[in-house]
Amino acid sequence: LVIVLDFGGQYNQLVARRVRECNVYCEIYSYKTSLEKIKEMNPKGIILTGGPNSCYEADSPTYSKELFKLGIPVLGLCYGAQLMMHVLGGRVSRADVREYGKTKVIVDKADSKIFENVSKETICWMSHFDTIFEVAPGFERTAHTADCPVAAAENEAEKLYAIQFHPEVLHTAEGTKMLSNFVLGVCGCAGDWRMDSFVEESVRQIREKVGKGKVLCALSGGVDSSVAAVLLSKAVGDQLTCVFVDHGLLRKNEGDEVEAVFGPEGNYNLNFIRVNAQERFYGKLAGVEEPEKKRKIIGEEFIRVFEEEAKKIGAVDFLVQGTIYPDVVESGLGGESAVIKSHHNVGGLPDYVDFKEIIEPLRDLFKDEVRKAGLELGIPEYLVFRQPFPGPGLGIRIIGEVTAEKVKIVQDADAIYREEMDAAGMNKTVGQYFAALTNMRSVGVMGDERTYDYAVALRAVNTIDFMTAEAAEVPYEVLQKVMSRIINEVKGVNRVFYDLTSKPPGTIEFE
Ligand code: XMP
């Protein structure tokens, strides 16, 4: 186990992810975690993350000196590096020049364990105002840049390492190597952790937390909630009940498909309950046009439906959600990032919830990691590699007011689009694709008659982590065929657009 102590930086999850990529298990804890707790966990190494503060100011996050005297190797990154120097008697203050972006770092100590097999001059990602001007007693400088006298320092005897730049960011060309040098080389971790260990560890933690309690899981049939549900079922078996709310905003036939896989006829024992709440959601959404309001309504209504189901099955202690890390960041809960959208899985929780606690077993994972966990759990590939579908569903793919009529239009158009994309083999290469309904109607002509109908927008994006994305190059013939089929087969549509916008500035979904 390696512990990542979170000081509020933007890249903290990336640190954890890179450590996992070295096949080392790691957990993130707040910098407020007590020394006793850390000793109890007996980690093989500790990483202090970056953060937005200045370590020499009175109310900045800090940690006691004792942390560095446990005999456990510590690696400080950015703020963590400055803090280590400050606490141990070095000098950190504001520099004249702010370093930001890709920067050439010159390694001064060729035999430093951290820089083993790293080039002598290497490009690193810098982002700091404060600078280490003097290393603490017992430390030596191991790297510098043109503007930064101490880009890295170490006290080899005490196994304390400080790095001013961000090895966790991919712009740091040899960053993963450095982190791997720390966790494998310095800390002596075995590097034999795999996703199955995540599954095992989560099962253990869930059992411990849940005890004999009853668990209710919000199953949507998407990758995230399916993985969460199967994980929970593995951990607590019959104590789990899965409720699938058909909110009437699913893709065409999806409700029945989800029921076929996870329901009583399927392969899993999930105590599956389907709630048909279509009319209820349409009712609440009538007349509402504002995207955030729509998201809040859908999210809140979801919770209400769960509460009602929970009452029917008796006391429930825990609610499971398939929240994954990018949801957490975009909702503004992950460190410093601003709120982009209130994600269905995280935002929009009503003030009172009739559950003791929420369990989010995938909260620290990126999408590709969730998929790996899904495969470990034996979930079929076609489900694991299914396109992501947002919690609020077609509600955020219909711009403006949602009505049953519009839902039907977008479901039919989307089904055609997906059918043709699959037939063209695009489902293997494109990250996410779907049809959306714009709120625009325009004039057309069909069979000598004037039409005044809706415009459908087709979206297809390539993305690795869904935080950034680019419009995919869908072959023109495919687009043309989709256009022609939609216009001929879907009543109420007379125009089709292809969305070329990347993310940023656009988002993947329309609202
Ligand atoms: P955006 O539109 O924010 O989408 O670029 C990024 C990824 O997240 C999905 N998404 C959601 N998933 N609840 C979810 O579970 C939501 O509220 C939500 N909003 C967007 C989206 O489909 C894309 O894959």
UniProtKB/TrEMBL annotation:
UniProt catalytic activity: XMP + L-glutamine + ATP + H2O = GMP + L-glutamate + AMP + diphosphate + 2 H(+)
Single GO MF descriptor: GMP synthase (glutamine-hydrolyzing) activity
PROSITE patterns, alphabetized: GATASE_TYPE_1, GMPS_ATP_PPASE
Keywords: ATP-binding, Glutamine amidotransferase, GMP biosynthesis, Ligase, Nucleotide-binding, Purine biosynthesis
Pathway assignment: Purine metabolism; GMP biosynthesis; GMP from XMP (L-Gln route): step 1/1
Stated role: Catalyzes the synthesis of GMP from XMP.
Name listed for the protein in its UniProt record: GMP synthase [glutamine-hydrolyzing]
Organism: Dorea acetigenes
